[in-house]
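Notes continue from the previous slide.

Worked example: a multi-chain complex. Inputs as given:
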Amino acid sequence: MVFYDLVLMLHEKLTHEKADKLRAQQQLEQLKARHVGTGDGDTTKFEFASNVLRDTYASMIGHPSLLRYTALAMGEPREKVRNMLIEKMAAPLVKPATEEKPTVQEDD
Amino acid sequence: MPDQNVFSQLHLETFGKSGIRRVMPGEFIATDAKGRAVMIASVEKNKLVYVLSRDSDAKVTISSPLEAHKPMTLVHSLVGLDVGYDNPMFAALETDYSEAKMSTDGQVVGAEKALVYYQLDLGLNHVVRKATEVVDPTANLLFIVPGGKDGPSGVLVCALESITYVQFDQPTCRVPIPRRKGPTENPERRRMVTAGVMHRMRGAFFFLLQTEDGDLFKVTIEMARTSAGLLTRDVACLTIKYFDTIPVSSSLCILRSGFLFLGAESGDHAIYQFERLGERDNELQFNSDDFSDNLAVPCDPVFFFPRPALNLKLAHSLDSMHPLFDCNVTNLTDGDAPQIYTLSGSGARSSFRTLKHGMPVGQTVESQVPGQPVAVWTTKTSADSEYDTYMILSFQDSTLILSIGEQVEEVVDSGFLTHVPTLAVQLIGTDLVVQVHSRGLRSMMGDVKTENDTVMQGEVLEWATPQHRSIVAAATNERQVVIALNSGELVYFEFDEATGTLSEYSGDRPQMDGTVTALSMGSVPEGRKRSSFLAVGCDDATVRILSLDLESILVDRSIQALTAAPSSLAIIPMVDSSSGGVALYVHIGLDSGVHLRTVIDQVTGDLDDTRSRFLGPKPVRLCPITVGEQECILALSSRPWIGYAHPETKSFTLTPLDCPPIECVTMFRSEELPEGIVAVSPDQILRLSYIEDLSTNIQQDSIPLLHTGREIVQHPTAPIFFAICSDPNTLGPESRKQLLDEAKKSHDATNGNRVETNGDHEMNGDRRVNGRKGTKGSKSADPDSEMSDDADTKDVEEDSEMDEDGDRGTQVLPPDVFGHPKANKHWASQICVIDPLDQKKVIHTVDLDNNEAAVSVAIIPLAEQDDEAFLMVGTSKDTDVCGYMHLYRINDDMSLEFIHKTRVAAPPRAIRAFHGRALVGIGPDLFIYDAGMKQMLRKAQALNAVPHEIMGITTQGSRVVCADRQESVSYVIYDHDEGRLVPFADDSLPRWCTTTPAMLDYETVTGGDRFGNMWAVRCPTTASDEADEEGGAAHMIYGKKYLHGAKHRLDCVMHFHVNDIPMAVHKTSLVAGGREVILWAGLEGTIGLLIPFAGREEVDFFQDVENRMRKEAPSLTGRDHLAYRGYYVPVKGVIDGDLCERFARLDRGAKERVSAGMDRSVRDMEKRISEMRTRVAF
């Protein structure tokens, strides 16, 4: 498989310079799909902030003492707070109307 | 393995190394019911499936992972379905967020929640997403339903106010979660299931599901029947009914023996016994037949009345300090060591706890004795009997003999001499009782039964001392007696089996250099005829070990010099961690109050591995006892201590006993108390007591509080604490009382007029009446109502048998089990005055109104008021809309008198006394306030002293250290001349401070952060000096800022991940005369210590131990130690003592390896490691 890839790459490199660029693009896409949250030059402020918030909520869920700390501050049972945080991960921010001038509203 | 009682690692499979992240599997784990596969899922996207199989040795082997990833999905819950021997199936509650958006009002739309089935095809070895089924969008938790022979398989999907039974390709059925009904309950509130357990029993099964209020509901699934009445495999309906209410749990477990274990979310864990299973009670049962299973149609609300438990009975509870909010170390009792006072628990399960180092002692009988005994013995009269016959009390000049039977009474015909003081009493051989008194030795043979059944009194033999000699000390065991004369001579007797009497050793009597003060001989080892060592303590501050072996009787073996004259000696074999078995210990009590423990070499008699500990200012007296058939030693000084092998580490531990001081003590065996101790206190009271177990050396005393305790301060002079308590989303006492009054009133009205049935009234008629109609019938409270503070008392009305619904409605249930009534955006808060010593309760309370919650508290001695100490409390109104500062005068009876309150822009989260005024942190600003007539008056300020919000303030001299919510600490200098506060140094690392920092010295502070780290930062000396110079503050104000911060930066000197959020940190000492240590208390109930090293050599030693222990004792879960302790920031300046102390638990081989590598003996290693702890703490 690897050998085949290599041959294909070489073939492409020799024949189509443009295809090479495309392939690099595809590989990057693949990497981005595998590593959730990876950004690039076109990442908007909204996407970036959403990712940060999702990471934050996931960390609060995953670290027991942080979850307890949050639950105690809210005066709610842990399970309820855990569920609430997962639900917030679905869409942590209000998407701004125009992508060019994103206005990040922190929800928490 | 079971005999070791430890977990052992069978297999370790690494699937992620980058910590706990969003896509790192590990948040959820589910196994197939038959143990063939396991699924591990992350919160987002990733799922791994491992196939488990067993090799020929029945060892579990694990496959490489199969992936079942799906991007843009979140998992809420994961279970393994019970599908018998079909291909393993897993069900996950998932949200697909690819289309999700947050609307402007904060609601998430477009995220669909579905139950997704994953099937592992064992033949093809791959995982498929088999099916998805849309479920309630509020669903949060799944429970598996037994399958195969036991049930219909499938899952229960728990959501907000509904429980749905879902089975692949089958119709669903749904029941609502009943709402609580009561005068203080909001009838609109919907509950969700937060924990639960499924239990199988003989072909049936049921679920106990707990809601966020703590109410347990019994959920059962009923199967359909054929027309002939036979059970089919189809589900007919789901039923739910109220079971009982227990504290909110994080996990429940039903044991086969009929017990329910409750892992409590806050406070003590508990074990309940099932008395009934909720059958044949008159609780209303709701059936899914009455409710539509259409997700679009919400269920009609149904109601139940909470009541005291009928089905569960509390069997046992386990102390837990989680969550711990604040902690204080102080010595209120004037004892030898300080106590730790903590605030722990949340809501109505909060408590103020006193932690004391000590072992609990049970007590059965106590009685007065005439005069002050100097020694006490018990003895049996024949080796065959199990229990003691006589108790002998020796006074200054006489002896009292008591017989032990049904009653303890004096006997006169026992044969003992009573007009002389006694030095020892011992049963020798089978029935020879020896009394050693100051003038000689009296041996009494047992009574002999003659042929004609008359009892012949046994023979009495006397051995008298030589002229002008008296006996000063004696040591005895089952076969030998040694006495010391005042001339320094030792006389040795041994039991002669031929004559049944004692015979004196005919050789020379050895002469000691000084006066003998103590003697001891170990008991005769099993299978031997004599104990081989005699320990002799003389007033020249030495202990000699003499041999008692036949070939070398009374020959000197070794000698140990001491710092003071020995007052008592005891040779006993004790469990020893270094040798891995039993070693012969010589315990030496000194006149100076020091206890020494040395190990005697069984062959040469050399003394080795001496460990000493100061017990108290009085001479130490020793008494060997047994607890749980383990040899222990009681050491009496100003207070009694017990020395024992720690049940887990087996290392020698000394713990004070929690009982009155003891003058003399001995072991006492009777039918009721097989391992009792009889102790006489200095006030001439004889007590029979017992030590139950050796597993705990910390005692907890708990005083219940009504709301979550947040902070405590100590009264400057009296042994009194002030605590602030607050609970969010909780109905305050005023509103509670008002609602109860209303209910009571309307209840009385209904009772008075029974004939007229009011359909609208909630207390009457159908319990399933729609909630909107009831509860808030009349708004006006009855001013003449006799309803007292029932809401506040924790007493339960005993009559759990309620005949009518009306009583159920107005009954006030204990809030520690049922919780306080909830109300959104309401705060319940109070200030408590606690007396932890005499009354052991909350003596005064002040309730805060105006929806304020106390956030900080301090004692402020006001210079303007002749240094009178006032209590100042900072509050937050309507969850941080604004803040108030309350000032209270502390009356002589410790009640609080409100003086005035001052409104400020933000809640004052930190208050501290400072030069006769109050230093207050409000938001990012620091102020100095003085008390005026009507309100607090601002005297000085530093705006933006910290970047976000001041969480804690500590001071020393004119220096103030403020802890920020996010950005570590800032140093501030107070300029007296100009009345200015000037920040001059801050930190370069963000630290989310949770503790009020503690000053270690003038330059250094330590604290803890929200991510579970402890750290210490130091101000550079130049900056520190500059700030204290004349006009330094002005220099700082106008000086250049450095990188948008203060002029100087702090250096980090210590950083360590402790894996618990530190909530309080103090610099204190824990033992009398011990060095100061840093004590911290964590949210999850941890009390930890950081002990300063005395020198470089010590650091090197422990660093070496830590390094080697990392290899020898890796974590059970495979977590790398360095990565763990440096989770956020690499470890700096701290050595993990917990890891080093695990040395004692290593097996023999590993201990040898570590010690050999360090070129030391195992004994030496253990001594150094344990001394590190015992020197400063327990």
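Summary box: Chain A has two domains: 1-33, 44-108. Chain A has a mean pLDDT of 81.
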